[in-house]
Amino acid sequence: MGSAKNTSNASRKARIEEMRRADRARERRGRALTVTVSAVVVAALGVGGFVLFSKASDDDGSTTDSKAWPAAKVNADGEKVWGKLGRTHVSKKVDYPMTPPVGGDHNQVWMNCNGDVYKKELPEVNAVHSLEHGAVWVTYNDKAKPADLKKLAAKVKSTPYSLMSPVKDQKDPVMLTAWAHQRSVTGADDPKVKEFFSTYVQGKQTPEPGAACTNGMAQ
Q: Which domain of life is it from (predicted)?
């Protein structure tokens, strides 16, 4: 009886020891696998980091030419109109052939244009995206009269899908831009201001009607 009990205990101990050896073996395999995976991950991160750094270096300061631009047609009252313009989202700068730009390839993030009046110049690639959403962009240079700017700012602030900002290098004191449309005006009281807003704020020219003018970029 005692001998059978001792044999049973010895068998159980042997099974327990075998289980422990199996557990230790699994742990060793697990540690080896962890070390191997970690090494692979570190190597991948190193390569990935290099690729990302190289890409960032390649993109830094570089520009991309906008696609072939159609020639602008000028209406009898002086408004310029362009044909079909590119609409590709790009991460690089774009060399627009006019100032301010009227459309073309642009950044995937738009400038907020819910009646936003900006005091500093805007990134062109972001402002163009606002035009794609149907915004009218009021711009001015240092020759614009303060009284006109005050009235125009009030107009913009009361008009969703519009924005205003300085553009130092534009040729005329005050200019109005929509997607593929642009004109100069004599000032805030020029009747063409009201006409331009009525026609082009979310007008037929809008490539993406109803797209948001909020939750974009702001200064």
A: Bacteria
